[in-house]
Design goal:
Length: 307
């Protein structure tokens, strides 16, 4: 979130706030199709900024008119069923990626992490192998310090291309940031791109590491059904999947939301799940694991929107 939700905005005020934006603007747009879980109600307005200037215009407009504004990545999030008031931005048009100089890659926030991985492979650059299996974007990946057991964003990030809540663009050096498990401590604002420092390597070596990892994911995770990745963070020294399975929760359903039988730290949408079903199931899992093992699981997802 860039600005807090202070009142229910009227459409004419939103229109005024977005008057300088050149990119596509859709009113009362259902958000479910933009999320990997395929649930959630509409946004008052969904904006696809055409470039960073557009992001700046939207941020300045939202700030001036006190409108809530959020960026939707779509892969690590649950949108509640009544949707999101105010402005939602989707950064898929920010899709440039290039090798800026030897071993340094710049990617805009809307670039999908697996695509960045493919580019790095093509340029024979190692360091992005962990991104092969992550459906999220560069922007989301920077904000949440995305990663797998092959590595994480923190390992390669050199600097962040950033728009502040005042609508000013700035470069933030990674060396000035703190990185936590699945969270980067950034100021309030929007990641619009990132510079990554990689290493040259042989194509075969990079390819071998990623394909082995992708096979492991395919064998252990329910990738063919709508999901939002791991539901909970792994508690220190343990794994959420192990705990949820040991609590006897695999296959448990509420409506069409189901604790995956393939991997207990995934909740899948069997077709017509609602956000309410999914969040009730999250609560049930947390309560059962807390009762059985005394462990309070921490949600990895973001939950946004109105109940
Ligand atoms: N396990 C069970 N039952 C299950 C699932 C897992 O007992 O139903 C056990 C496994 O046997 C294993 C342990 O739990 O001993 C860990 O499982 P796994 O190797 O599948 O890894 P994970 O810790 O559950 C993490 C990331 C995933 C990433 C995989 C592989 C977290 C919260 N999740 O999962 O990331 O793909 O490693 O690198 O760190 C994501 O963050 O969205 C995500 C999918």
């Amino acid at each position: 979130m860039v600005t807090g939700q202070r009142h229910v905005p009227t459409l004419s005020v939103i229109r005024q706030a977005l008057r300088h934006v050149q990119g596509d603007i859709r009113w009362d747009e259902p958000l479910a199709p933009y999320t990997s879980l395929q649930v959630g109600g509409p946004a008052d307005v969904l904006v696809f900024p055409a470039d960073v200037e557009d992001v700046i215009h939207a941020v300045q407009g939202a700030r001036f008119y006190h409108l809530p504004l959020m960026v939707l990545g779509g892969t690590n999030v649950v949108i509640r069923d009544k949707g999101v008031r105010g402005i939602v931005m989707h950064l898929k048009q920010l899709s440039k990626v290039y090798e800026e100089k030897t071993n340094r890659v710049y990617a805009q926030a809307g670039v999908r992490l697996p695509r960045l991985m493919q580019f790095s492979l093509g340029w024979k650059l190692s360091g992005m192998e962990w991104a092969a299996g992550i459906p999220g974007t560069v922007g989301g990946g920077v904000a949440m310090n995305a990663g797998t057991r092959l590595g994480e964003m923190q390992d390669v990030l050199e600097a962040v291309d950033f728009v502040t809540i005042h609508g000013r663009r700035k470069r933030i050096e990674a060396s000035t940031l703190s990185f936590l498990y699945r969270k980067t401590m950034l100021p309030k604002g929007i990641v619009v791109g990132a510079w990554m420092q990689l290493r040259s390597s042989a194509k075969d070596t990079i390819h071998a590491a990623t394909s082995q990892y992708l096979q492991y994911r395919k064998a252990t995770q329910p990738l063919t059904l709508p999901n939002a990745g791991s539901v909970f963070q792994n508690p220190p020294g343990d794994s959420a999947g192990r705990l949820v399975e040991a609590a006897g929760l695999k296959g448990v359903r509420i409506g069409d939301a189901e604790v995956s039988v393939k991997h207990a730290n995934f909740i899948v949408n069997r077709g017509a799940a609602t956000a309410e079903h999914i969040l009730l199931l999250v609560r049930k899992v947390r309560e059962r694991v807390a009762r059985k093992f005394g462990v309070r699981l921490i949600l990895e997802w973001k939950v946004v929107g109105e109940r």
